[in-house]
Amino acid sequence: MQNFSTFWEGLQPLNHWFFIAAAFFSVFFVWQIMMAFFGLGVDTDMDTDLETGIHHDSVDDATDSVAAFKLLSVRSIIAFFTLFTWAGALYMSKGVSVTPSMGYAVIWGLGAMFMVSLLVYGMRKMTETGNIDINKCIGNTGNVYLDIPANGNGEIRMLCSGIMTHLKARSNNGTAIKTGASVKVTKISGPNSVEVELDHSTNEGKG
Length: 207
What we know:
It is built from six helices and five strands; from the N terminus they run αααααβββββα. By secondary structure, the chain is an alpha+beta fold. A five-stranded mixed beta barrel has the order 1-2-3-5-4.
């Protein structure tokens, strides 16, 4: 304990803040990773939105694989700040001056952001490539993952054949449905696309 006190007192004030921030972001990082692996996390991806304002089927098909990889998300941002603060704190504690420490910290943070995005993307693709019988999804409920625009395609997240998967979705009456709303599958419109309607019982219960 005395060794830690000596170490702590020998640090610069800025370094103190970096260690405190590193501990703070580490808690959130571990929590997000646990939620992702156990499937309990809320989908909070903030899209870089290649699909925003683009709702024609031919364009959606061309951009699906790219749009699925989201570099900017809550998880990747937390990963960035976790590695950024730890790298900054450790480099400065080793006697590296502030400016190069910040440079190294940014590099570590960007690397963490990319790796977490790649990990989440890989986990998502694994769920999509399972042995799914999409026809069994009719009547099942899920949540809107990407806004379903009026007369356009969005995306839902749901259990299908026991596998959590993402499907392209369109409202069966052409109305817009916001992210997070509970929906019910009414029709299969393609190998990876469905038509849905609001699940009124669930959504009214939330109100």
